[in-house]
Design a protein that fits this description.
Layout (H helix, E strand, L loop, with lengths): L2 E3 H8 L3 H12 L12 H12 L9 H5 L3 H18 L4 E3 L5 E5 L2 E5 L3 E5 L2 E8 L7 H15 L8 E6 L4 E4 L8 H15 L3
Parallel strand pairs: 1-4, 6-7
Antiparallel strand pairs: 2-5, 3-4, 5-6, 7-8
Length: about 200
């Protein structure tokens, strides 16, 4: 049974036919996850640790840039700056993250937002987006649908599911007006499984 990350599945969904085959082959035959090759791991873990330990002084996030090796410093600096701008004067308390698989037929997609927090009195589950490339509306819609589908049952009533474009400090949230993309996700999952079984 294929078990893939949310990012891998979303990247697959947004590719056209030829690159899709390549994407599934890459996912299926990839090496095991290595923290050393995860460019943003130290930063992601540092932000989570900052909040989970109850730290309220956002200037203390600067240590994540100071501790970064030279190749990462510039990117880390931009991300931390964007994140601090997002925090602004919000009243924030750590509540913990949810983690669940979105499952369809034999496919499991790991849905694991990095931030679980109360922001100005509302529960949030937030996936952080670190990449340089633009975060498109279609990508946001798919991520939010996967999050809502996988996490809604285990979440506090009224929980806000969001994707934070950390560089631009913009939080995209799921609203009741969003189209339900379940049928699309299930159709695409069938395609993914079919390719997986042949590569």
């Amino acid at each position: 049974m294929p078990r893939v990350s949310l990012t891998e599945f979303v990247d697959y969904l947004l590719k056209t036919s030829g690159p899709r085959l390549t994407q599934v082959r890459r996912i299926k035959h990839k090496d095991n996850y290595s923290p050393a090759q995860d460019f943003y791991k130290m930063l992601r873990d540092g932000i989570v640790r900052h909040h989970s330990q109850g730290e309220l002084d956002k200037t203390k996030l600067d240590v994540l840039v100071e501790n970064a090796h030279a190749p990462k410093k510039l990117n880390y600096s931009r991300v931390v700056s964007g994140y601090k701008k997002f925090l602004g004067r919000k009243d924030i308390a750590w509540t913990g993250t949810l983690r669940e698989d979105w499952t369809y037929n034999s496919l499991k997609v790991v849905v694991n937002p990095e931030l679980g927090m109360e922001i100005d009195g509302k529960h949030h589950q937030i996936k952080m987006y670190f990449k340089d490339e633009d975060l498109t509306k279609s990508k946001v819609a798919v991520i939010l649908q996967l999050m809502k589908s996988a996490l809604d049952d285990g979440a506090e009533a009224g929980t806000v599911f969001g994707v934070l474009d950390i560089r631009s400090s913009k939080l995209y949230t799921h609203s009741s007006k969003e189209k339900d993309l379940t049928a699309l996700l299930e159709g695409e999952a069938d395609g993914f499984i079919s390719i997986w079984n042949k590569v």
